[in-house]
Every structure is written in structure tokens, then in C-alpha cells.
What does this fold into?
Amino acid sequence: VKTPAGSSGGTAVAVTCNFAAAGVGTDTGGSIRNPSSFGNIYGMRPSKGLISTYGILPLKNYKDTAGPMARTAEDMAVMLEAMAGTDENDDYTVEAGADALAAGGYTDGLSSEGLKGVRIGYLEYSINYSSWPDIKVAPMLDQTLETLKAAGAEIVDISDILTTEMINSLTSGINSETFEYDLNKYLSLKGDAAEYKTVSEMLSYGSSDMQMYLEKLAADYYSLAESFETTPDPYSSVIGEYKRIPDWNKVLYGRAKISEILEENGIDAVLYLSFFDTAADDGPYVEDDPNYAGYDIAFGPKLGLPEISLPMGFSHSGEEGEKELPLGLSLFSGFGQEDKLINIAYAYEQQAGEEIRRIPDNIPPLKDEALNQFVSDLIQSAYELSNSRYDSTFDGLVQDMLDVCKNTESVDWDDPYAVYEAAGELAAAYDKIHAIIGG
It folds into this structure.
């Protein structure tokens, strides 16, 4: 059993196993992108403030965001269009101008040609697989880079432009502890609907699992408040019209600085490996794990830049008995540049084909009775059409349709994928005849 990563691991598993068409994850430090990477799906952490977090249980509100998780880039774009926008209950969306950021939408520009002329940067340390990544990962990364290039992208080393020292300087110290205040505020807004009113009450009276989880999150607090009104307010700075953490100006500066660097150098996105190996045996992972690159807490969570996880395919070490496992590649872009990331993802997906994604082997397809009934009715209609009056000139076309009918009847009706494919072929044959001879 392998870890799905977290905390949106349940969503990733549900989506990749076709239990849901798409899903919504939440991300404070990697919780959309990491399970998307291990789950073989697409996942996006949007620019901070593009999507409202109002009503979502907080971890660190100034880092928290929701985001789409899906099996295809197009589904992810559809989800993002539905989720993005200004919410007066979330002043981060007001500050970011979410309505304006999302005004162009994310689906109209999708094209298989979307990578032509695109420049994608990389940071040498983040993909330096000569010493870091597992032997299984290097071929996956090489193939992904070749796919991006084949679709028209230019891959550029920008390690001397966006240096490790610069990244550390721009992101260090942005880690205000806001958990207790954020959660107590959330509980206070719930009123009587909240069983517990504070973190203190949850630690004292909650379940053992709840207590174990909260003890880790509240470890930095020497004492816990008995009410929201007495909770120390960590949002001690007023920046413009908004209460923010003391380092919020640093967040805004770092966000703007990196966005400016990318724009000045004609870089549309930057890629990196968030993990140097495929999923480990089930259990928690930590930031000092040698498999954990650490970049995924810098650009998105700390600076609020948009990031995406793309499926790279499956590991293939060649060792007998070694199970193939998926892994994703991360890309980030300038603030508000979700459209660039989605266009890259879509064009990459079209170039890569079906090999980069597949349903897990241990999840059988579920029989679709509604689909089966539709196809049965279509077969009946096809036979009735073939017996209707028509000019003998079209005998060949009718026979072709009857042949497709026989093929359709012979498929495995417990396999919805096979039925759906057969239905498409039969519908095309039926429509062709129907358009000519009626019925």
C-alpha cells in the first residue's frame, strides 16, 4: 500500500479511480499538488485570492486556497472557471481582483498548438537527477521534457537568473503562526452549529484522532485561548485596507519580483520535481525526507503564485516484480497566469497521448446500466432503420451499419469503456444512414 500524499489524498484517489469526474482540493503547503502527483491526475494551486476560502476549515488562512483536481487538463480548466472569482467574504479575493484575473476564462484558448513558442525554465537543483532522483524517475522526467519539446516548447536553464540564494531570500521568514486564530474565528462564525468553540476545547474534548492531529498543529502555542475574543491576533499589520501578517509586504514583494523576472526573461513557466521518487509505503512524509524537494512550499504557499501538477506517466525500473507507479511534474508561473499553466497542460496532454494516465489496475470499471440501455435502444433503432424503405444504392452503407451492430452486441457489457467506444462507432454509422434515407 502506497501513500496517496495529503491532505487532499482522498480527493486524488477518488478522481483517479473514476469515483468522481473531478474534485476540489485544498492546499496550504502542497496538499493539492502532492496527491495529484502520486495520484496520476492534474491538480492546480491557483494564485492566492483567485478562489475564495470562505467556509473552508483553515490551516493558515494567508496560505490556504482551494483548487481543482481532474483527470484531464480541460476538466481542470472547466473547474477553475466555475471556482474563480471575487467573494466579499474573502478579502484576499478582493485584494487580488479575482474577477478581473479570471475574466478571460480558461477554456476558450485551449489548443494542441499551445506549447509552440512557449519558454519553460527549470532550476538545475530541482531536477538534478544525476545524484538526487531515484533511477525510476529519471526516465519519466526525460520523456516528459522530450514531450514538451516535441509540442514546441523551449526548455531553458534559469538557475543563474532565479538562484537558490534569491529564492531563500524572498521566501525566508514568511511563516506566521495563525492556526489558532484562524480556526477559532472559523468556529465562531459557525455559531451554535459548531460542536466545539475553540482549539482548546477540541484538544480537551475531541476524539483521540482529533487530539493527536491538533497537538502537532498547536505545538508552537504555549497556551490556548478559551474564546475567539481572547485569541491573540497574529494579523497585526494593516496593509492598505486589509489586516495581514507582519510579513505580508514581503509576500507581495517576492510575488511581484519573481513574476517580473519571468516576464523580463520571456519565461512562461518554471518546472521542477517536487519528489525525487515515487510514492513510498503508506505513512506520513516530512519536509526533511530526502524524497521531498521543498520547492512546493516556496512559490505557491509563501508567495501565492499559481502552480500545477502534470502527470509524467509511470516508473519503469525494469526490475522483476517492480510495480509501475505514477509521478507528477510541477510548474509555476507569474501571479494570475493560470491560463498559461492550463494551456501548457492541455497541449502537453495532447502531445503525450494516453500513456501518461490510466485507471489503477486494481479498480475495475463499473457497469453502466444507463449506457447499456441507451446502446441497446440504438441497436434496435439501427435494425429498424435497415429494414425501412431505401434506395438500393445505399446497400453498402446499410451493411456497414449492420456489421457495426454485430460488433457492438459482442462487446463486454460490464465494461463501460468498451460499450462507450462501441456506442460511438454505432452512432456514427447510424447517423450517416439516417441523414441520407431517414427512417
User: Anything to note?
Assistant: The beta strands are 22-27, 42-45, 65-70, 119-122, 154-157, 237-239, 242-244, 269-272, 307-314, 326-332. Confidence is low (pLDDT under 50) at residues 285-293.
